């Protein structure tokens, strides 16, 4: 918004801008666009270009191969378990952090950030050391015939670990900014906790929650490092979509690898589109409600 | 309830905090503890021998060096992109703005094969540099390129909001006091951006250090030359060398936690600084 205001002012007569000379502006914009073009747009073009390099028929055949379909099924199953788990965690953590003051709050937030800071490979290794055959739990797991590492449960666990911060990190700042006045009002007016959550909290955070879920889902479906460590790469059994891409690529089956990869790239683009829509939505909501809430401030403070 | 500082009429404190702590303990803290317990079964001498093996040392050198180089590229171009997105208007700006998050949303393996195909000898960009005798893919240069891709959103997204809130009046004041544009930028704008700029740099560096998926394809993974630390862990695991993998992972975890601590400190600094600036403005107006 501030950009519009500035440019409007610059256009008005009698105003001397404190901006850069137009030539410099063009130059800087040009360099930035060139960088974005080479680093972000070119890879996208490369993925879709090579995916369809041998035609649509080859593309369809590549993504409907039995191994690939099995990988898609496993990826969907993993996301279907991991995302709801992390959503419940995100809601609980955001409620505790954004609505209450308690000792150790900053420590809790730092704990939530840890999966961002550690290597996905180390995350995977942690589960191998905990549940693998050589681990302290290993003999017991073998005796009850429960396979976690090199099996589906390990893939789900690793995905949960790597993606659990996303929804919480999306909701915490949002709920902190909103404050708890509306919930307090609902409770004072006689609503119980559940009613307050469903009727007041959830409608307020639904867009942020939606983006958190979509981002978490994209990362869950695309997780590579952690899953690669715990999966064991058993074709048709423990291969997720990214692992299938790796296998196809390492077999020099490039077109098929890019065809399968294009599914995930498409998911990433959808995620970005949802993010933009959510941001647009929240800016507009803020303007509508902000004008009412800050009506006094706007006339007095400025 | 002892933890709670003040009374609130909102329900669910015990339940939500309890569940969050339980979940983190189960999913994160227990597995994390196992790594350090396992590492603790090694003697210092064993640990030292594993870490200082030439192949491991070379991988640390590459990972740290390439991550620094990638984060530096991000610092320069991230600041530029944030500046252009906040200050100028041009067609397609909204699309460019949302594309900045692409490395964050794109699965790392997909980015990895895409970058490899572009920078390989026969790729779109690789073929441009090949006549100059410059190989990018399968060299440390390729690793830097992949890490520069992965870290880009961090600098842009930390600098952008601060720049957006930066009041133009301060720049106008500097200009009216006789500063030229470069002096205003260098002495007025840049100091205000520095905390968030450094935080973005540290975030990009931390993420790059542990990055695996986007690097393994373009790196070529030649021992002593283009092996990154996460790959060393995987190689050791594949050879069933659990002690070795754990030792390297423990060192990486210590580095990650140190960086996380520094980043938190930086964010605290930038918030404080930001509020000081905001407060000063309020006093002025």
Write up this protein.
The complex is a heterodimer of chains A (302) and B (285). Chain A is mainly α and 302 residues long. Chain A has a single domain, classed as MetI-like (MetI-like fold, Orthogonal Bundle). Chain A contains 15 helices and no strands. Chain A has helices at 2-11, 22-51, 55-63, 66-99, 105-117, 120-131, 138-143, 152-163, 165-178, 181-188, 193-222, 225-231, 241-250, 254-293, 295-301. In chain A, α8 packs antiparallel against α12 (225-231). The two termini of chain A are 17 Å apart. In chain A, 40% of the residues are buried. Chain B is an all-alpha fold. Chain B has one domain (49-284): MetI-like fold. Chain B is built from 13 helices and no strands. Chain B has helices at residues 13-40, 44-51, 54-87, 93-99, 102-105, 108-119, 126-129, 140-165, 168-176, 181-210, 213-219, 229-238, 242-284. The longest helix of chain B has 43 residues, at 242-284. The two termini of chain B are 43 Å apart. At the A-B interface, α1, α2, α4, α5 and α6 of A face α1, α3, α4, α5 and α6 of B.
Number of domains of chain B: 1
Q: Pick out the low-confidence regions of chain B.
A: none
- Give unreliable regions of chain A as ranges: 1-16, 291-302
DSSP strand tally of chain B: 0
Distance between the termini of chain B: 43 Å
Helical percentage of chain B: over 70%
Give me the CATH architecture of chain A, please.
Answer: Orthogonal Bundle
Q: How large is the share of residues in beta strands of chain B?
A: under 5%
User: At the first level of CATH, what is the class of chain A?
Assistant: Mainly Alpha
Number of helices of chain B: 13
How many structurally independent domains of chain A?
Answer: 1
What is Rg of chain B? 23 Å
Our estimate of the beta-strand percent of chain A is: under 5%
And the CATH topology of chain A? MetI-like fold
Shape of chain A: globular
- Main sheet: strands, sense, barrel of chain B: none
Overall mean pLDDT of chain A: 86
Provide the succession of SSEs of chain B.
HHHHHHHHHHHHH
- Give the SSE order of chain A as H and E letters: HHHHHHHHHHHHHHH
The secondary-structure class of chain B comes to mainly alpha
Mean pLDDT of chain B: 89
């Amino acid at each position: 918004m501030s950009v519009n205001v500035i440019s409007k002012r610059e256009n008005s007569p009698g105003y001397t801008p404190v901006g850069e000379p137009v030539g410099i502006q063009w130059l800087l914009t040009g360099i930035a666009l060139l960088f974005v073009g080479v680093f972000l747009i070119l890879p996208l073009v490369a993925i879709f270009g090579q995916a369809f390099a041998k035609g649509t028929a080859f593309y369809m055949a590549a993504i409907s191969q039995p191994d690939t379909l099995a990988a898609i099924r496993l990826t969907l199953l993993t996301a279907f378990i991991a995302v709801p788990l992390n959503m419940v965690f995100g809601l609980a953590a955001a409620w505790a952090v954004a609505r209450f003051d308690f000792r150790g709050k900053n420590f809790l937030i730092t704990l939530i950030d840890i999966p961002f800071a550690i290597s996905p490979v180390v995350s995977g290794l942690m589960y191998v050391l905990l549940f693998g055959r050589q681990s302290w739990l290993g003999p017991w797991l073998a005796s009850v015939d429960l396979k976690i590492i090199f099996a589906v449960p390990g893939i789900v666990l690793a995905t949960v670990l790597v993606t659990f911060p996303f929804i919480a990190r999306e909701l915490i700042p949002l709920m902190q900014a909103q404050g708890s006045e509306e919930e307090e009002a609902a409770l004072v007016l006689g609503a119980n906790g559940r009613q307050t959550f469903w009727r007041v909290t959830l409608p307020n955070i639904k867009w942020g929650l939606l983006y958190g879920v979509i981002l978490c889902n994209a990362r869950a479906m695309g997780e590579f490092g952690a899953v690669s460590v715990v999966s064991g790469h058993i074709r048709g059994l423990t291969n997720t979509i990214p692992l299938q891409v790796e296998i196809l690529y390492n077999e020099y089956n490039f077109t098929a690898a890019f065809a399968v990869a294009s599914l995930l790239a498409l998911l990433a683009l959808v995620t970005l589109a949802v993010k933009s829509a959510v941001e647009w939505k929240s800016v507009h909501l803020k303007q509508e409600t902000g004008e009412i809430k800050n009506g006094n401030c706007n006339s007095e403070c400025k | 309830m002892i933890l709670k500082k003040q009374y609130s009429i909102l329900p669910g404190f015990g339940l939500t905090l309890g569940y969050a702590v339980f979940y983190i303990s189960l999913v994160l803290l227990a597995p994390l503890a196992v790594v350090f317990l396992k590492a603790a079964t090694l003697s210092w001498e064993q640990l030292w021998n594993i870490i200082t093996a030439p192949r491991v040392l070379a991988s640390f050198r590459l990972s740290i060096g390439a991550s620094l180089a990638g984060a530096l590229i991000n610092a320069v171009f991230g600041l530029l992109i944030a500046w252009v997105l906040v200050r100028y208007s041009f067609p397609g700006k909204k699309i460019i703005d949302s594309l900045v998050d692409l490395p964050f949303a794109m699965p790392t393996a997909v980015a990895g094969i895409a970058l490899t195909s572009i920078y390989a000898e026969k790729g779109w960009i690789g073929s441009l540099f090949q006549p100059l005798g410059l190989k990018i893919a399968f060299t440390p240069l390729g690793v830097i390129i992949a890490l520069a891709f992965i870290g880009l959103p961090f600098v842009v997204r930390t600098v952008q909001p601060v720049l957006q809130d930066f009041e133009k009046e301060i720049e106008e004041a500097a200009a009216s006091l006789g500063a030229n544009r470069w002096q205003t930028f260098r002495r007025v704008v840049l100091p205000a951006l520095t905390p968030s700029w450094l935080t973005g740099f540290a975030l990009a560096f931390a993420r790059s250090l542990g990055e695996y998926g986007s690097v393994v394809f373009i790196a070529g993974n030649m021992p002593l030359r283009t092996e990154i630390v996460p790959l060393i862990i995987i190689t050791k695991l594949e050879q069933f060398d659990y002690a070795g993998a754990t030792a390297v992972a423990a060192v990486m975890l210590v580095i990650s936690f140190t960086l996380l601590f520094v980043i938190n400190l930086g964010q605290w600094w930038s918030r404080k600084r930001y509020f000081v600036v905001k407060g000063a403005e309020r006093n002025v107006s």
